[in-house]
Amino acid sequence: MKLSPNQFDQHAKSGLLPIYWCCGDESLLVQEAGEALRRVAASQGFDERELHHVDSSFSWAETLTSANSLSLFASRKIIEIRLKAGKLDEQAGKALASYLDNPNPDTIILLISAKLDSNASRSKGYKLVDKVGGIVTLWPIEGYQLVKWIEQRLNAAKLKADQEACQLLADRVEGNLLAAVQEIEKLKLLVDGDTVTAKTVMQVVADSSRYTVFNLSDRMLTGNPGEALKVLNGLRGEGAEVILILWALTREVRILVQLASSTNINASFKQLRIFDRRQPIYRKALSRMSKRQGLGALDHCRRIDNMAKGAEKGNVWDELSLLVLTVCGHSLAIQQP
């Protein structure tokens, strides 16, 4: 049975199913779907929770044996199993088939995973869960849907925002829903009154941190080496993690390589969820950097990662500075094709 989180309350009135599977790439949505299901189940007496992660020490047999046993302190429970991949292997499928042949009515199995693998829906395990349980697939929120989602979140936080403010915040978080929630929490704390405008968003975002990896990415893409290095040095002075900075820069370089390889850049912008407001800075970066240079920068990211892990010699901060200068198109750093 296919379900969405907003159906849980109505669905629960006819009785909960023995197993549910919440899956998707948007970790925030998957997390909130699990919370919503646990909340509905708690209202029906499922007030104990066991949490398991599928790793080398995990045993489906032992876990499902637990599903058939009752606690001394609670009569009903949820067994939450976090899958390592978006699929059920043969061992998992067999174990679940055996359990679901006669499931414990006082236990709910909740599977949590990333987006399903391309072949997952054809597996016996998936078909079994779909037949006797509920599958909740969470899709990415993008474009106009993201703007509406942000507007709804602001309203839930008792904040009123105009369209421009919602669009600006959507551009700022670039599809990262967790970042959007964090920005809305900042707005709740820092905004006077309950009205949010585009000016308010810009002020709060600017005031929340003097230096951020987002500032660094923007200045690098626009080709401003002086400002980019200033932000990089500021992040270093504030004790920012090298891995976080490298993650942000690698992400931008990878996007540039994908765009440089594209035969239809507008379609690629849409596929990569790069909104209209940010497209000009990527176009500007592409005017300075060829695909070959982008691949070279991507390899530079790999070497910096090795340095950060101690697998290769070098000064990480010096190399990050050189990487930033390369993407900025600085004549001392960029390699001609």
Automatic annotation (TrEMBL):
Catalyzed chemical reaction(s): DNA(n) + a 2'-deoxyribonucleoside 5'-triphosphate = DNA(n+1) + diphosphate
The organism's place on the tree of life at top rank: Bacteria
Residues annotated as domain DNA polymerase III delta N-terminal: 20-123
EC annotation from Swiss-Prot or TrEMBL: 2.7.7.7
GO molecular function: DNA-directed DNA polymerase activity
Domain called DNA polymerase III subunit delta C-terminal: residue spans: 214-333
Pfam families membership: DNA_pol3_delt_C (PF14840), DNA_pol3_delta (PF06144)
UniProt KW keywords: DNA replication, DNA-directed DNA polymerase, Nucleotidyltransferase, Transferase
Family in the record: Belongs to the DNA polymerase HolA subunit family.
NCBIfam families in alphabetical order: holA
Protein name in the entry: DNA polymerase III subunit delta
